[in-house]
Amino acid sequence: MSHFEFVVMVALSRQPGRSLQLKDLAVVANGSLSRLSHVISRLEQRGWVRRTSGTQGRATHAELTDAGYRKLMEAGPVHFREVRRLVFDVLTPEEVRALKGAAGRINAGLIGEVNLGTLARRTRERSRRRST
Fold this sequence. Notes:
single chain; 132 residues; mainly alpha; three-stranded antiparallel beta sheet; 10% strand
């Protein structure tokens, strides 16, 4: 599983019904709609994600399947160990605090005021609190 696939699956896992409109998911996962579409196709082939129609049938959503959720729970500890090894283990506690503050300010600016659903709203609010 690539890092981007992992990010997409985490974003879906945090949504009500584990589903999000593709255009919003692209923003939350920080990728283009085209890139996301290719990734969703790969995840569909593995049975981890499925495309669904929105409530009015016009928008396409991605939904994390039960098999996808199980795979994510399997991959999570491996991913987090690697992030810890590559990022946090090489930083001092003071550098980690500085990184957290800077990342919060950056996230608050990147997400902006666009309505991206529950996950993005929580992320934006958390980022704003950290940056003040």
